[in-house]
Amino acid sequence: DAGVIQSPRHEVTEMGQEVTLRCKPISGHNSLFWYRQTMMRGLELLIYFNNNVPIDDSGMPEDRFSAKMPNASFSTLKIQPSEPRDSAVYFCASSKLAGVSHTQYFGPGTRLTVL
Amino acid sequence: AQTVTQSQPEMSVQEAETVTLSCTYDTSENNYYLFWYKQPPSRQMILVIRQEAYKQQNATENRFSVNFQKAAKSFSLKISDSQLGDTAMYFCAFRSGYALNFGKGTSLLVTP
After folding, report:
1. Which of A42, A100, A106 is the closest to B97 by Cβ?
2. Per-residue pLDDT of chain A (115 residues; tens, 9 = 90+)
């Protein structure tokens, strides 16, 4: 089975541009998570979807960040406008269910650089 | 709030030797799970091992085992017969709800 798929793997953009990160969860998984990894803050949860519905977006840093999950096999994380401090690795993870016993499987991440 | 502390930013071990990575956590929850994830230079986050808090028996996965001390809130990872491919960042993570709370990580270097 394919794991979590993320695209692009690398993104370099200029400040002020719109950035869209994409994620395809593992088939059959009902929960999807977006995490951000920075040197300063480590790994932190941005938003969590269950059955395509956003449940907790309290980790989204600002209104410039938005996430959608139009169907069970696709999610996007959008930053508009982007800023240099958004530079980080963005991970998507999925799990079969949201319960604490269900392991989260991570995608390869998207390294975002905002110049 | 739950916190996860990894007190060893960097460690080094020779090939074939054994190394132990430390992790402590703070929580008032009783039902939770603990994980070790590995992040090699490829950046992929790979699950190494997980432990259910209600299980007293320590989890093992081939060369990887944990020492789970619930009362002490300690969850260390032991890697036996270290291999060059074990070189990576290792993250300890705690989960009592839907979110994973990660430590800052330990960078492990395996040398020939």
Report:
1. A100
2. 679 999 999 999 999 999 999 999 999 999 999 999 998 899 999 999 999 999 999 999 889 999 999 999 999 999 999 999 999 999 999 998 767 678 899 999 999 999 9
